[in-house]
Amino acid sequence: MAIVVVDVALKPEILDPQGRAVQGALGRLGLHGVTDVRQGKQFVLTIDGEVTADKLDEIKKIAETLLSNPVIEDFTVEVKA
Amino acid sequence: MSIDNVASAKANSNIEQPFAALGLKPDEYERIKEILGRRPTSSELAMYSVMWSEHCSYKSSKVHLRQFGSKVPANDSMLVGIGENAGVVDIGDGWAVTFKVESHNHPSYVEPYQGAATGVGGIVRDIISMGARPVAVMDPLRFGAPDHPDTRRVVNGIVAGIGGYGNCLGLPNIGGELIFDPSYQGNPLVNALCVGTMKHEDIHLAKASGVGNAVILYGARTGGDGIGGVSVLASETFDADGPAKRPSVQVGDPFMEKLLIECTLEVLHAGLVEGIQDLGGAGISCATSELASNGEGGMHVWLDRVLLRDSTLSPEEILMSESQERMCAVVEPNKVDAFLDVCRKWDIEAVVIGEVNSSGRLTVDWHGEQIVDVPPRSVAHDGPVYERPLARPTWMDARQADAPTPERLARPTTAAQVRETLLLMVAAPNLASKTWVTSQYDRYVRGNTVLAQPEDSGMIRVDEVTGRGIAVSTDCNARFAALDPYRGAQLAFAESYRNVAITGARPLAVTNCLNFGSPEDAGVMWQFEQAVTGLADACLDMGTPVTGGNVSFYNQTGDVAIHPTPVIGVLGVIGDVANRTGMEWKTAGESIYVLGVTRDELAGSEWAHEIHGHLGGLPPVLDLNVEKALAEVLIQGSQDGVLSAAHDVADGGLAQAFIEMALRADRGATISIPANIDPFVFMWSESASRAVVVVPEHHEQALASLCSGHGVVATRVGSVDDSSELIFSGVYGESVKATIDELRSTSEAVLPALFG
């Protein structure tokens, strides 16, 4: 068993309305000093067996085709134990 | 990091510039050098390249579009004509209405959700920049083959994007079109229409007048979205590796747009604004050059004052950025504080980026260096104009000769075959219930929606006291335009005109969204010229001016262009929406009439397309005098309360019209097919200028005299009853029956099965 974490976020140059809304809320709550907020989503995949190089390629493919929208989003894949 | 400024452009005149990568032709580049008397700076090159693009300059279409201005009679309801952000028409009682349709085809194919969403956002900003409050949207959509694997992605994304943006804005989506044809496989068409209302005194125009007035940019911050090709320039300015390729996709924020609507209407109504312009394609380049050239002719901009989302943007990118939800206003110096106060109230960032002057130049500084110094008209209005070669495609003859005769396309000849065809046609994706799409849209928000899909037009109440309202429809059977673009455009206009008249509203004004292939293809250009001429001639005949529109070229994959698709929107006015006519036949015993003449006209019909996959022959004949007479009967019949229901006859012919009325009412009817016509032709021919109307017995005489007075042929074909069956009698000696339940379940299952 292994855990693979895929983080998906909008590309930096793409507008992030949710992040902007969170930043606006911080100001209204009197929490200053945060100059930018970007939000994304995280997928935690539990993998049967070892994460081999082949398996990792497959996961990257999953991330690229299903978990993210490569036109406007970037993703990272990280193997956690 | 050095910036290419005007001084260095004068000093080093011979450096190589990537004009070709920006889409400029060598002669266009030479012309820029001629205008400036030197090479352009990289910022100037960016501005010219985007403002002289087909999208912004209409360089291939201009020579043809002039017909809309020259041929159309001045209609006294027109308050603002072509050339402004959107045309404005007078609808009476001191009210004015503005409406416009624009394409967002290419972005919606690349990123369906955001492409469609920002299409809605863009057209809404066009409407608010005229000073109007947006009150409704409509979306004519065209997709590839319903069973193609990619169509699902595109349909789902686009429908969700339109719903997501429009619903968040709180705008009802009152109609549109949903059409599938393999010709749109790689080029779906997403056209977005918005209607806005205002009092006459609230009309505003895009011009920067008054020397010393401030130019204020307000709304969302400027980011790196929608820059696309301009990254070529950025990579020159930055290090050798260049920045990561900027995505050409923009992401919309409907909640910001909602604030922008309210903020803009408040500053306009408070009299704080001299001129206003929305930022769409070509962003700040477009807004500043258009405002300046429509006003006193000069403007200075401090570009480094623009609020950025991404501090690494180069000046070229800032000039080009198509970040959404931004507006530009010209404000007198003593009103700037009041303007900024209103922006603060709505939580909108605003900054003075420039000043109007009388220099006759548009100048832009970046941290003290002058990077742009151009005559603004040369950017905004004096772009290249092309008389592209036209040639009637050689395959037109063969296509028009391939008529759908009974020998060529097998027709049903028995009652059993007619019933089989009936059920197949009900399940045709182009005819099936559109509820799966429209239930994703908010149709009744704001509380003034009188009619919405599946009715022939959307209708909105404008004045809540008098009941004055407007009706809008958009239509186009592109297969007709593929068979004959001149007549096809006229048929699209006629259908849209009829759909407005059917509700009881009087057609007043026309807008269009002309979707075509590449203008560099002489055959496509011929189609375009034919369609524009056809529409302009028809508008002249019917006395309805074109108030604005949009051209979308390059809708083609490789050498294969889409069907020429001139989508025509017609807007009409009704004195009191309580007098409208809907399509639902409500009362048993009332008589059903067909108005107009049914001929053997199956070329380009839904039947030929759905059953045989055939496209050939000549489209239905159209006599605009007949269309006008029919409209008069429909409008008057509605006003006088003669008609209890009315419905357009178009795609799918009379069979489809009867089915739609029965489904709307959940009530059956018996239709006796007249003996003098072939039952198949009666049911599925798509002859123009026809409507189905329903009248109570005590009004039959009134209908007869109305029709004879206008020379409209009326044929009584049956009556509404209490049954749950639609019965066609006289079908090759037998009767064909279908239950309402069977028709409904067939019709409503189609789209969910394909895309749900």
Structure description:
- The complex is a heterodimer of chains A (81) and B (756).
- Chain A has two helices and three strands; from the N terminus they run βαβαβ.
- A three-stranded antiparallel β-sheet of chain A has the order 2-1-3, covered by helices on one side.
- Helices cover 33% and strands 31% of the residues of chain A.
- Chain A is α+β, with helices and mostly antiparallel strands.
- Chain A has helices at 17-28, 53-67; strands at 2-10, 40-47, 73-80.
- Chain A has a single domain, classed as Phosphoribosylformylglycinamidine synthase subunit PurS (Mth169, Chain: A, 2-Layer Sandwich).
- The model of chain A has no long low-confidence stretch (mean pLDDT 91).
- In chain B, α8 packs parallel to α10 (254-269), α19 (485-502) packs parallel to α22 and α22 packs antiparallel against α25.
- Chain B is globular.
- By secondary structure, chain B is of the alpha+beta class.
- Chain B is built from 26 helices and 28 strands.
- At the A-B interface, α1 of A face loops of B.
